[in-house]
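Supplementary Methods S3. Complex input for the adenosine-5'-diphosphate-bound model.
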Amino acid sequence: MKVLLLAGGDSSERNVSLDSGAAVFKALKNLGHEVVALDPATNQSLLDKKGMEYIADKSAKQEVLFPEKTDNIPILSFKSQEWREVEVVFIGLHGGVGENGAIQNLLDLAGKKYTGSNMTTSAVAMNKAIAKRLFESADILTPDWELYRLKDIPVGNVLINDICNRFEFPIIVKPNDGGSTIGLSKVNKEAELLEALEKAAAESKEILVEHFIAGRELTVAVLDGRAFPVVEIKPKNELYDYEAKYTKGKSEYIAPAPIDEELSRKMRETARKVFDMVGASGAVRIDFILDKSGKYYCLEINTLPGMTSLSLVPMAAKCEGITFEQLIEMMLQSALKK
Ligand SMILES: Nc1ncnc2c1ncn2[C@@H]1O[C@H](COP(=O)(O)OP(=O)(O)O)[C@@H](O)[C@H]1O
Ligand SMILES: [Mg+2]
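Predicted complex, serialized as structure tokens:
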């Protein structure tokens, strides 16, 4: 099959995406597919001249990305013979327009099949507050929360007072539509709040404040309604932050997670329910925190989960004997069936 791989992009998760792209490119080649690869932020191919080697340029600075954003959105230039031959698009992007439905919408307009969820599901999942409202509507536990739109209540004393009246510390302050734990802070007392709000505000115009849930980090990967075994993450840092996520040795992973069968069954059932509720397709990953009393809280659903060799979805699939390449092929077939 002729596959277009999209990786890179202009979100703060660009470098993670370039790594996912490298792993997916290798798998697609090993599977015998013909691969073209594009960085939609620079409009540049991610392959060498012969199209044989994946060359990810992590040095590109943010501001030069999307050069002609206004009048020439790169992947709209579908005139080329090469583009017409593309049978399916493998989206290896994370965060921003790659994950929030924008790219999915463009591909819908172009009539191209693509991996992962459609525009609406992508937009809903990327907006943590909307996703949490959906969780609550299905009686799925999620940390108590409040959304603050900075256009209505800017970072400052009014916001700080409102949060201090509304929550007991510790709390979590995060961008409402972020990823990779970027812009997220644990806040233990009022004095730390301003810095945390400024850090989140640097990533998003909407800030989500949640109760901090002390507990075990568990995640469930779902592929087309099939929930893989629960995976436990033991970050060396207090939170599963960017460093813990993407630095070898900074987190320990246990797959399947050492939890009792009944809890595992319930969590996989909840993950399937979330998958169905948002109308997801392809591979997603749902993050949970399990507290000491045995209650598990749903944090979020990732519709374009990491696909690096360190990533959690391949790790969960492996528990059921599915290799990375088989997983990539299953995601391609899922896209074609959509
Ligand atoms: N309410 C919370 N209580 C405890 N830890 C949290 C909470 N929210 C987030 N975290 C920590 O931050 C990490 C990232 O949060 P998450 O909501 O999944 O956002 P992201 O989209 O950045 O992954 C989690 O994996 C967890 O380690
Ligand atoms: Mg997460």
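The chain has three domains: 2-114, 125-140+214-337, 145-211. Residues 62-72 have pLDDT under 50 and may be disordered.
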